[in-house]
Amino acid sequence: MNILVITDKLIFGGAEMYFCKLENQLQDPNINFHFAAGSGELYEKIKHKNNFSEISRTKHVLNIKKLKEILIDKQIDLIHANSLRMVLYCIFIKKLTKKNFKIVYTKHNVTVLEEKSRFLFSYLLNKYVERIITVSDFEKFNLVKAGIKPNKITTVYNGVDLKQFVFHGKEKGEFFNVGILARLSEEKNHELFINIANKLRDIPNLMFYIAGDGPEYQKLNNLIRSQNLSHKVKMVGIVHNPEEFIKSMNLLLLTSYREVFPMVILEAMAVGTPIISINRGGIKEAIIENKTGFLINNHSVDDFCKKILYIESEEQVLNQCIVNARRKVEEDFSLDQMVCNTLQEYWKCN
Fold it and tell me: What is the mean pLDDT of residues 171-188?
């Protein structure tokens, strides 16, 4: 079997890291793998560059032509699309070539099409996509509710490379470091993180760190300055080794307006950094309240602050949570499991 795995771009992000993990780890003696993606800083993580083709991030007609050439040249039997745009490319190529290749779609986030036209979204997936991989049961439930045939859908959780994200016990230091690691975009709601820091500004041992880059960088930087928080909140920028940043934090926050199943919570659980997360999407499938992490139901500055102060003072509760979280990742969210389960989805199409 010949398989082509495709994604939009290789910027830092959960879907893009998922693509890189598959590119690095997929192996089967009976499958030839090929990969294609738009440009980005994660290109350096691509291992098998001989089997990799770069596509454009903006020129759709050119991309369809290039993917069509790969399909014919490599005699592709199955395309694994990691965005809805890639699925639409595949449908168009099917129409153009009349080739009977199979489409597998991993749904990483909420799409514009499903919000604007649920009927068209479900029609296209039911008609043209062989298998749909969701990264949480929450998202699987949403797809069934949208009219997608349940027998097409399998949840395959994102997997953590436990050799990269090594468990690291916490030692009490002079400062208690609170971090957030996410693309600096509006939906990640960094303003809430900064407002939390502002509320806790008078507690001297608390420090706050924002890691990542994106379109909101200048806006957030200006907000920090306008609230006179430059001494309290530090912007770290792009993090090339996320495990090192997460490891250096005593606590990680997730403040997003919406999420499907963010990779960063699993990475934090793996290295031993406790996490307080907004309760959105499939997050509660990994974070069990007061056992493997802590959940907040609303975007409330006060609720986050109370939980931070509780965690910072309750060392015994914190340490037990850290141990439980690592065990949960080892049992349910390893990279080996993700790769094995993804291969099973490919073979279901054969």
Answer: 93
Domain extent listing, the chain: 2-159+334-348, 176-332
Collapsed DSSP state (helix, strand, coil) of residue 176: strand
| Right CATH for 2-159+334-348 from 1.10.10.10, 3.30.200.20, 3.30.390.50, 3.40.50.2000 | 3.40.50.2000
Tell me whether the CATH fold assigned to 2-159+334-348 matches the one assigned to 176-332: yes
Distance, in Å, from the CA atom of 270 to the CA atom of 329, rounded to the nearest integer, reads 6
- DSSP state letters, 140-173: HHHHHHTT--GGGEEE----B-TTTS--------
**Is the distance from CB of 160 to CB of 335 less than 8 angstroms?**
yes
Paired residues of 237 in beta bridges? 211
Percent of the chain with pLDDT over 90: 91
Q: What is the mean pLDDT of residues 268-288?
A: 97
Long-range contacts of 82-85 (CB under 8 A, 24+ apart): 82/5, 82/6, 82/7, 82/8, 82/15, 82/18, 82/19, 82/106, 82/108, 83/7, 83/8, 83/15, 83/108, 84/111, 84/113, 85/8
Query: Nearest to residue 88, comparing CAs of 9, 12, 6, 152?
Result: 6
**Taking the CA of residue 115 as centre, how many other CA atoms within 13 Å lie in the half-sphere pointing to its CB?**
4
252 pLDDT band (50/70/90 cuts)?
A: very high
Question: What pLDDT, on a 0 to 100 scale, did the predictor assign at position 104?
Answer: 98
Residue 283 is classified by DSSP as G
Sign of CA dihedral 158, 164, 167, 170: negative
- Read off the pLDDT band of 169 (50, 70, 90): confident
CATH architecture of 176-332: 3-Layer(aba) Sandwich (3.40)
Q: Report residue 12's pLDDT band, with 50, 70 and 90 as the boundaries.
A: confident
Residue 234 burial by Cβ neighbours in a 10 Å radius (0-12, 13-18, 19+)? middle
Total residues belonging to the chain = 350
